[in-house]
Each structure stands twice: as structure tokens, then as C-alpha cells.
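Propose amino acids for all 251 sites.
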């Protein structure tokens, strides 16, 4: 089995390799469709620039800020539950993009998409953080690699498969549904990592983090660049390509 092979190659538990594969597939599924969202709203739905900007901003802000809430809640109620909820929400959002055509519906499903990403990613990272200390650094490095590979592979697959944006959105919705089903079927292998933290311990950890001034300053310095690079470049590039190539029609 492929997961067992990578587990031996990287000397990591099978459950961790499974999470990494899931992170890659989820990111590839998102970026298979997300770059075409702005084009679809511009060409097929004739949304105004204000509406398009609002839809994209809702998704970006939700996925960036909601983990402040979903992170502690997943510690309280269980990371596996939140991962499943996140995958279902992301699938629901892409299905909504494929079916509905109104401005308010797109704003709603943009929020659902951002919420799904917040539920999923904050919980997956929490499971990584519960791995043994000796492999934790390797896990986070491979997680970043899996995420970046998803960003590369997703749009490439989307270009190959897309005959229209709604069909691609439905394909993403179906893949997220399959991912959620697979995760539910095999969720017991992560049971040892899915342990609720005590409130006192979480408060102590937060205090230790914010007392480290160098870490806080570094995080604040990197936040604007990272947010703009990963969240604004993809939609902007897709619109630019559309106007540079008048024959490109993915609506």
C-alpha cells in the first residue's frame, strides 16, 4: 500500500502519513477550482467588481480569523469531529458555487468555504502538534511540502479536466465528500492523538507563547506578506490570464 511505503521511507506512523496525504488531496481539490471562481463570477455571472471583491474577501477573512475560534473548540470537542465537519463544509461550498447564481448565495458559500477550511486546517495542525517530539519537526516540514504540492497539482488538474467552472466545482465537492467518508471510516487510527486538553494547560501555553516577544514580533512581521501571497495572488492571476488571453473561456 502506498501509505505504508511512505511510512517506511520517512519513518513516520501510518496515521501521520494518512493525514499528510489528506492534506495534499484537500489542498489540491481546493486549488483545482478556486482560481476559476473569480473568472466564473466575472464572465458567466457578470458580477460587479465590488461583489467579486466581497465574495473573495469573505472567504479570505473567514479562513484567516475563524481558527481563533475553531482551534480551542476542536481541543474541547475533538479534532476528528472538526476535520470531518470541515471537509463536508468545503464540499458543500463548492456544490453551492456550481448550483446557485445569485450574489448573496455566493457570499454565503464563500463564508462556508472559509469556515470549512478553518475547521479542517486548525484541527489537522493540532493533530500534528500531538505527535512525538522526535518526529514533530519532520511532520510539519512534510505538511508544508504536501500543502505546496497541492497548490501546484490542483490548478494543473483543473486546467486538464475543466470544460466549465460549475462542473469543476461539482468535482471538487464530490472529492471533499469522498475525503470526509474516508476519514470517518478510518478515524479510529487517530484516536490516541484526539485528546481534549485541560483548560488550565491551554491558558498556560498561551501565556508562554505571548511572553516570547521575538516569536510574537516575527509572527506579526510575516503575517501580512504570507496572507497576501497565498490568498490574493491566485484569484488576481486567474483574472489577469483571462484578460490577456481573450480566447480563454472557462465559465
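Proposal:
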Amino acid at each position: 500500500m502506498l501509505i505504508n511505503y511512505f511510512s517506511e521511507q520517512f519513518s513516520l506512523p501510518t496515521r501521520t502519513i494518512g493525514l499528510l496525504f489528506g492534506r495534499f488531496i484537500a489542498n489540491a481539490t481546493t486549488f483545482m477550482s478556486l482560481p476559476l471562481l473569480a473568472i466564473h463570477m466575472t464572465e458567466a455571472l457578470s458580477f460587479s467588481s465590488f461583489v467579486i471583491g466581497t465574495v473573495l474577501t469573505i472567504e479570505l477573512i473567514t479562513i484567516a480569523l475563524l481558527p481563533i475560534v475553531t482551534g480551542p473548540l476542536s481541543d474541547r470537542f475533538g479534532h476528528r469531529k472538526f476535520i470531518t465537519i470541515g471537509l463536508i463544509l468545503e464540499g458543500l461550498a463548492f456544490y453551492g458555487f456550481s448550483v446557485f447564481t445569485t450574489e448573496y448565495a455566493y457570499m454565503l458559500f464563500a463564508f462556508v468555504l472559509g469556515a470549512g477550511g478553518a475547521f479542517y486546517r486548525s484541527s489537522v495542525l493540532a493533530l500534528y502538534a500531538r505527535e512525538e517530539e522526535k518526529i514533530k519537526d519532520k511532520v510539519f516540514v512534510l505538511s508544508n511540502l504536501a500543502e505546496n504540492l497541492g497548490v501546484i497539482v490542483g490548478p494543473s488538474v483543473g486546467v486538464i479536466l475543466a470544460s466549465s467552472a460549475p462542473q469543476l466545482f461539482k468535482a471538487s465537492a464530490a472529492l471533499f465528500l469522498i475525503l470526509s467518508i474516508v476519514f470517518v471510516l478510518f478515524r479510529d487510527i487517530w484516536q490516541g492523538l484526539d485528546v481534549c486538553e485541560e483548560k488550565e494547560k491551554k491558558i498556560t501555553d498561551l501565556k508562554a507563547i505571548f511572553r516570547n516577544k521575538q516569536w510574537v514580533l516575527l509572527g506579526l512581521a510575516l503575517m501580512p506578506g504570507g496572507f497576501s501571497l497565498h490568498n490574493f495572488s491566485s484569484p488576481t492571476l486567474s483574472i489577469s490570464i483571462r484578460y490577456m488571453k481573450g480566447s480563454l473561456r472557462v465559465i
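Residues 244-251 have pLDDT under 50 and may be disordered. The two ends are 39 Å apart (CA to CA).
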